[in-house]
Design goal:
There is one protein chain. The protein is an alpha+beta fold and about 350 residues long. About 35% of the residues lie in helices and about 25% in strands. The protein is globular, with a radius of gyration of 20 Å.
């Protein structure tokens, strides 16, 4: 597992705890459902699935199919695997070559370009060259060299990737471009895993991966999947709250564990595509939306944009909600949209 993946694992463990109910049976007329849980490393991260099925055979088949789908998507979208479809596309940068894409990669790149346009590049999957420099910076605890950073930024910019909807092709127009689909690929994989579980006849399931998740129907007899939204790791941070998740996705972004301190300053693993520098805002962003790919991309964009612009962005999205807790200086700030109340566990609830 990559070091960044280990960090993401601990982020997931620290930010969210899922209230589970053991292996009790539940009656949901006409079937009696059992709770099953599975975990497996995928995409360099620990993926977890919790689902309710009538028997072990049905549950195992659904989980096996879902993990296979995630592995298939990793083979397409990994930026670590030099033989992935994404890596092969990146190697055509600057050649003027229009590369025909698989349906999955086309869907993800199209979604990426749409959110890039909507956020004026705050979310940008062409940031790969800069991300590579910051991976090295975190290992060596030294800032990227200014000349290398400037050179990398020349290859960054969502407008430098051209998509042709008619031919379903992508052209990387500038030399040395490198795509990094980390967050959006993970969100899509979670959604696809949940979809596959559903096609196997499972109505109630939760899929999590590195701090992001998506849920279908609530567990039997419950109002939703009860998720604990933990506070920021800072003194006097607001207390934890609980969410009830069903038929929705949740995305997180922040520097809780993936950061580096250089010359007394804390830099996040999240890079601003315009400046090329890791964010210095100590924050935890949570977005809820109809699916995980939307929640995930919005969470990353909000981290870059900041809470005020981010709040306006999320307010425009359908059925989306935002919660941000941050410590830009000595004081802790909390920002959220009114729509968050839709997902909060009611006070005194016995869910």
């Amino acid at each position: 597992m990559h070091k960044a993946a280990r960090h993401a694992y601990w982020l997931a463990a620290a930010v969210f705890s899922l209230t589970t109910l053991g292996c009790r049976t539940f009656s949901e007329d006409p079937s009696t459902l059992l709770r099953f849980e599975y975990s497996q490393p995928q995409m360099g991260l620990p993926f977890r699935m919790v689902l309710y099925a009538t028997n072990q055979v049905a549950a195992d088949a659904a989980a096996r199919s879902a993990f296979a789908r995630i592995a298939q998507l990793n083979d397409i979208m990994s930026d670590y695997d030099t033989d992935s479809e994404l890596s092969r596309l990146s190697r055509t940068a600057g050649e003027g070559q229009a590369v025909r894409l698989s349906p999955d990669l086309w869907h993800v790149l199209l979604r990426a370009q749409r959110i890039a346009e909507e956020t004026d590049g705050a979310f940008d999957v062409t940031v790969g060259p800069v991300v590579s420099l910051w991976r090295k910076a975190r290992r060596e605890k030294q800032l990227p060299r200014a000349d290398l950073l400037a050179s990398a930024l020349n290859a960054v910019g969502w407008r430098k990737m051209r998509l042709d909807a008619h031919a379903r092709t992508a052209t990387l127009q500038v030399p040395n471009m490198r795509l990094d689909l980390g967050s959006i690929a993970k969100g899509y994989a979670i959604d696809e895993a949940l979809r596959v579980i559903g096609t196997n006849g499972i109505r109630s399931a939760l899929v999590t991966g590195g701090g992001d998740m998506a849920a279908s129907a609530a567990p039997p007899g419950k109002q939703g999947w009860r998720i604990t939204l933990a506070p920021l790791d800072a003194t006097n941070a607001p207390p934890e709250r609980h969410l009830l998740l069903k038929n929705a996705g949740l995305g997180t972004s922040g520097d809780l564990f993936q950061h580096v301190e250089i010359d007394g300053r804390r830099y996040s693993h999240i890079v601003d595509p315009k400046t090329g520098y890791g964010l210095t805002d100590h924050s935890l962003v949570t977005v809820l939306a109809p699916d995980c790919i939307t929640a995930n991309t919005l969470a990353t964009a909000v981290s870059v944009l900041g809470p005020d612009s981010g709040k306006r962005l999320v307010a425009k999205a359908r059925d989306a909600a935002l919660h941000v807790v941050r410590k830009p200086g000595e004081l802790i700030e909390q920002v959220e949209t009114r729509s968050l109340s839709k997902y909060l566990e009611p006070t005194g609830s016995k869910n």
